[in-house]
Amino acid sequence: MLAALLRRLSQMLFVMAGISVLTFAIFFATPGADPSARMAGRNASPETLAAVRHDFGLDRPLPVQYALLMKRLLITRDLSSFVNRGEQVVPEIAAATPVTLSLVMGAALLWLVGGLSIGVVSAAARGSALDRGLMALSLVGISVPVYWLGAVVNLVTQSRFHDTWLFSWVPPLGYVPFTESPAGWLKCLVFPCLTLAVLYIGLYGRVLRTAVIEALQQDYIRTARAKGLPERRVLLHHALRCSLASVVSLFGLDFGALVGGGALLTEVVFSLPGIGKLTFDSLLALDLPVIMATVMYASFFVVAANAAVDVLHALVDPRIRHD
User: Fold this and answer.
1) How many C-beta atoms lie closer than 10 Å to residue 5's C-beta?
2) What 3-state class would DSSP assign to 80?
3) Can you give the pTM of this predicted structure?
4) 3-class SS of residue 88
5) How many Å apart are CA 121 and CA 199, to the nearest integer?
6) In Å, how far from its chain's centre is CA 44?
């Protein structure tokens, strides 16, 4: 087991190193990509360009530039922004991380509860009007764009009906840290979490329904029924447990991607200063150090999620544990 974990850790490090090299090559080594020209401004003189390149180490060979960038990002942690002079990148990432984690963890709780409930109920009532209705609602949830749903939610809660008793408690757009006000933190995240969770509730509900229906047709389910076990126990203890492997895989990858910046649209619509919005702003400004830092941050969570999925598979599905 220890050898497998060490092997998985080495694979994670290798993948992250490859991602960092690829990202650096795209933004620094691509022909015509000269960040010093953007930093120096339009119509900058050759002397100014040379001074900017020297100040930021862009006049050195590319391997040296990459090594210095990784050193300042991972070891000394004093990497500064190219656009906002003197602003440190690592504190920016640290400040944005709790926002994204709060949003994604709240949404994940909602979509797991909602998706599992819809999937189990639909599988138990397959072919009925309830099953068709839940699947139709799930399809609507998958089809609705997050940015459109967020805009509608803001229109209802922040504008049209904000003064009514139903939405008068909704705070202005933005983020309130938990340490500053737990109640304010919870209020500002309610509708962003709901908006982000709608898509995944529909997706997980449909995936789990299919997996449970397939599991109910297996031989071990017929054996459990032949032993006289109640249908509820057969459904929840046997069919559902062995159907969770697909959900675990989806959840690990989705959670890692969202924490790594995949919740960008939700953060932008609700003005949440998270990792996604930070990445979006840095791409608009072509702030290369921030882009490198956010890409490394995202790759860590995605790769770690893949490793966690492998471990959870063995815990959820006994068939994998015995292989």
Assistant:
1) 12
2) strand
3) 0.82
4) strand
5) 18
6) 40
CA dist 296 and 273 (Å) reads 18
CATH architecture assignment, domain 90-321: Orthogonal Bundle (1.10)
Domain boundaries defined on the chain: 24-76, 90-321
> Contact at 8 Å (CB) between 238 and 140?
no
- Tens digits of residue pLDDT in 47-80: 777 777 776 677 778 888 888 888 888 888 887 8
Q: Is the pLDDT of residue 156 over 60?
A: yes
Contact 134, 121 (CB under 8 A): yes
CA distance between the termini of the chain? 13
Query: Does the pLDDT at position 259 exceed 80?
Result: yes
Q: 125-134, 148-157, 218-227, 311-320: which range is least confident on average?
A: 311-320
CA atoms within 13 A on the CB side of 90: 11
CA distance 35 to 214: 54
Residues in the chain: 323
Please give the Cα distance from 93 to 81 (Å, whole number). Answer: 12
Using the Cα atoms of residue 31, residue 37, residue 39 and residue 41 in order, give the sign of their dihedral.
Answer: negative
